Every structure is written in structure tokens, then in C-alpha cells.
Amino acid sequence: MENNNCPKVETCPLFNGLLLKRSGSEESYKNLYCKAGKDKWMNCKRYMTAEQIGSCADWILPNCSLSLEEIIAKMKEKGEYKGK
Question: What 8-state DSSP symbol labels residue 10?
Fold first, then answer.
């Protein structure tokens, strides 16, 4: 059986319950992105950001409306950029 989980689930704060505490959204994000197969997690902004620069800020959600370039610029502004 094929594993449909994102390869980053072990280290992802969203998947591991460290973000969105008590919001109820966490499980929805997991089902829509983290556990939904490669086509879905490849479009997760958290995954895309981590792949591009090696880290992802906690404020980035899987369905973030910002482009990857905008996310990186905002992370740089906030001093959160730890790029490759």
C-alpha cells in the first residue's frame, strides 16, 4: 500500500499539534494536505516553503494565499528567514 503522507509529517509543527491548538482546523489541514497524497502535499505552502528555503515560519498555513516569493519576503522582513 502506498504511503500518502507528506514526507515532512515527522517534523511539521502543524501535523504534530504544535500549531493551531484548540482551533479545530488542524485535523482538516491534515486530511486535505498532509495525508491526501503527493498531489495535495506538493501544493501545501508549508511544504513548498520548506523545500525552497529549508524552513517554514509558524504563521504559514497549507492554504496560505501569499505566493512563495511573498512568503519569503515576509519571512525576511520578520527576521524568520533561515534560507539555504
Answer: T
Residue in 21, 20, 17, 42 with CA at minimum distance from that of residue 32? 42
Is residue 23 classed exposed, middle or buried when 0-12, 13-18 and 19+ CB atoms within 10 A define those classes? exposed
CA–CA separation, 5 vs 81, rounded Å? Answer: 26
Which 8-state DSSP code applies to residue 33? I
Per the structure, the complete domain to which residue 26 belongs is given by 1-84
pLDDT tens, 10-42?
Answer: 999 999 988 887 677 888 999 999 999 999 999
pTM recorded for the entire structure = 0.88
